[in-house]
Amino acid sequence: MSSGSTDETLPLLSAPVDGVPDVIDTAAGLDEAARSLAAGTGSVAVDAERASGYRYGQRAFLVQLRREGAGTILIDPEPFPDLRALDDVLRGTEWVLHASTQDLPCLADLDMKPDALFDTEVAARFLGFERFGLAAVVGETVGVRLAKEHSAVDWSTRPLPESWLAYAALDVEVLLDVADDLDARLHATGLAEYAQQEFEHLLDFTPTVHDEPWRRLNGLGSLKVPRQLGRARELWTSREAIARDGDTAPSRILRDREIVALSSARVRTADDVFRTLGTGRLTRRHAQRWADALMRADSLPEQDLPRRHRATAPGRRMDRALVKERTDALKTGMRDLSETTGIPHDLLLQPALVRSAAALPDPGDPDALEEFLVDAGARQWQRELSLPVLVDAARSVRG
């Protein structure tokens, strides 16, 4: 869960009010947790802790829940094939999460999916909070300070230290009060309906799946020729397989910047790898593995190498100067709308959508523009606010 800075003068909330509960890791304990949640009332606060900097993937290594009448429940999901027993008793219950897009995918992997949710980070953004990490939002709403020193620890550690469990329990202990405060503010400012549409949209959130995930390597843009890109692709693919098989975060095996460095260097042997990266944490066996991957890439025929620029879809070529002028006008309009409403411009409409709208044949056509926004997934509230602004801005630019 995200943190964010907060006022250091606020009182520190360092221990859960009911103490740190035992971690549930047995079938009997899971059944008892389900009964407790079923007997509880109102919304349920939900959080999950991952170990993405240490383990492969984004799975949860601790799930925290809190509900009135049930107290705080900590669950180790590793011994269980799923947590469907909890999901079943929470059907129809609103979940309160902070930065829900971080936790929804790993919870879905455990067969836990809310029917309704309230995202405290999204609510804080609607309300114009300057900082919207959990610690900052907690300080702004309920006036206490959370200790966040365990936010980046290895949650796959077993047993989990008591201090880590206290940190995890406190995250859900405050969430329900935070949500109540934010909900009242949303209603007072007339933003509750907009926020509700966002929450409903988040129910269907799934992480983006990229066709060529290796192209997301940091620093890839410095590689200029297809052969270098082919080397980067082969190194990424090898790293991914090793990470998956060893349940290790890819960055702990080979960093992105090391892949880029090897891709542009003259490397044929393990010694060449050492000369490029230094001895550091590399063993000779590891160095040979990367040398072999580079040799495989170097043996590929030219036609099998990736290209620096992907082919663009065929169609009408736009006047680049016109598109730029439109983009500037549309962005200015959205910034003005943000200042008027107090809603951050990137929440009003994703910047990528604004740029794409500028490249439409006629973004000044309200029907065509609305059809584009609907197809792109813009919510009704976003279209209601942004469509008139975008149309006026587009019409101000001569085409």
- Give me the number of helical elements: 16
CATH class of the largest domain: Alpha Beta
Q: Report helical residue fraction.
A: 40-55%
Rounded to the nearest angstrom, the distance between the terminal CA atoms is 46 Å
Mean pLDDT: 93
Structural class: alpha/beta
Shape-level CATH architecture of the largest domain: 2-Layer Sandwich
Which geometry do the CA atoms define?
flat
Secondary-structure element sequence? EEHEEEHEHEHHEHHHHHHHHHHH
Largest sheet: number of strands, sense, barrel closure: 6 strands, mixed
CATH superfamily of the largest domain: Ribonuclease H-like superfamily/Ribonuclease H
Number of domains: 3
Which regions are unreliable across 5 or more consecutive residues at pLDDT < 50? 311-315
- What is the oligomeric state here? single chain
How much of the sequence lies in strands comes to 5-15%
Using the coordinates shown, work out and report the CATH topology of the largest domain.
Answer: Nucleotidyltransferase, domain 5
In spatial order, strands of the major sheet run 2-5-4-3-6-7
Number of strands: 8
InterPro entries: 3'-5'_exonuclease_dom (IPR002562), Exo_C (IPR041605), HRDC-like_sf (IPR010997), HRDC_dom (IPR002121), HRDC_dom_sf (IPR044876), RNase_D-like (IPR051086), RNaseH-like_sf (IPR012337), RNaseH_sf (IPR036397)
Keywords: Hydrolase
EC number: 3.1.26.3
Pfam families: DNA_pol_A_exo1, DNA_pol_A_exoN, HRDC
